[in-house]
Specification:
By secondary structure, this protein is an alpha+beta fold. The protein has two helices and six strands, in the order βββαβαββ. The chain has one domain: 60s Ribosomal Protein L30, Chain: A (2-Layer Sandwich), CATH 3.30.1330. The mean pLDDT is 95.
């Protein structure tokens, strides 16, 4: 695979990468999104509480997917990282508001620590929408 087969995705409407990685890469019609954390793109603040953090993470992920030519209906797999599994039910209630059946495959794990001390991070793999 050559570099021209890998297209980096960047949008100002989601937080900039805080390391040497892309917000997403498009490869062979698939969108591989890096994990998003609940940073508010406009001012760099961090949303508070698990519900608001989950909403902000998914809003950020939605912007990255859109920039890549995709959306939540094309997501086939997510990974949810929680700082504590005690937040699973509250995260899951918000998460369910963003996806319709058939729901994407998903893994959910408790991480010892997440960037900037946040409560949740989510990454995704999606198909790129077909242009009609």
């Amino acid at each position: 695979m050559s570099q021209k087969d890998r297209v980096a995705v960047y949008t100002d409407e989601a937080p900039a990468a805080i390391g040497p990685y892309s917000q997403a890469l498009v490869v062979d019609g698939w969108v591989y999104c890096s994990g998003q954390i609940p940073i508010v793109p406009g001012d760099g603040s961090v949303a508070q509480g698990i519900e608001d953090q989950t909403r902000q993470v998914l809003a950020n992920l939605q912007k990255v997917l859109s920039e890549a030519g995709s959306d939540f209906s094309e997501v086939v797999k997510t990974t949810v990282y929680l700082s504590s599994m005690a937040n699973f039910i509250a995260m899951n209630e918000v998460y369910a508001q963003f996806f319709d059946a058939p729901f994407p495959a998903r893994a959910c794990i408790e991480a010892a620590a997440l960037p900037k001390g946040v409560l949740v991070e989510i990454d995704a793999i999606a198909r790129k929408r077909e242009v009609s």
